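Hey team,

Filing this mostly as a record. A colleague (T.K.) asked me to run one chain through the structure pipeline before their review meeting, and I want the input and output archived in the tracker in case anyone asks later how it was produced. No errors, nothing strange. Just documentation.

Input sequence:
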Amino acid sequence: MENFNIRRFGKTLQLTLIKSRREYLNMNIGFFIAYVLYSCFILLFEDTNDVYIMEIIKWQIVHTYAVFYSIYLCVGGCLIFNNMKTKENRISFIMLPASNLEKYLARYIYVSVFWFLIGIVTFCIANLVSMPLSLAFRNSMLPCLIPDILRYLFEFNKDSIVQMGLPLMWTAVIMGIFWYHTFTVLCGTIYRRNQVVFTWLTTFILIFIFLCISVAADIHITIDNGLYDWEDQRHFINLWSTIMIIVFSVLIVLNYYLSYVIFRRMQVVNNKWINL
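Output structure:
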């Protein structure tokens, strides 16, 4: 089947969500417990009667959640084809009455859009639960952080960066985050077992290689670049931001393409460790 059929794709996506329910439920339960415990225990070591301290605690929790959430999304990308670990699972998925594109998109939406949304829902529930539970640890209740975390996730310091006249820098940061998620999807497609471990290992190796090349080639970028006028500095930063946006865009398309090509070449019997 090579033609894309929206109805067939919908059924494939529905089947994917049903068969993967244990996976995302276990992951989000662990995420829920980690958030609640962190939110409550952090109150044990601070003076919650001080308004200024409580404000600091609030932003500590928001930033920690952002780190948890980033790791959570990257783990989701690594698990894009976690449903094809065993021979029986591979046969079942490959033989589905759907085209390769429909099956790939179903799995991609599951590990990206679905994980993104259910992660936010999990945080909201965890925050609401930790509010009254925090009273058991201290006499003050943890404030509702749902508006703060949503603003942090969707704006990501956009206002302050844009006010500095660097809108392209904000776009480059977002593109970089999006690129790394596509990188985890590619690694999740390549590696058959222990995808999360091998993805992090690949990341560290690439970072190490990049640092070695930078040191060997004496590559460094200074913000002022000898330009002490802020207007010139702003143009310099926007120029590099534009270059990074183009590079990240190319890499994102390349990651998707390679991931899809590897998926199409998957067989019932593959290499023990990689899907090649």
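Quick notes for T.K.: The chain has a mean pLDDT of 81. The CA atoms of residues 182 and 254 lie 9 Å apart.
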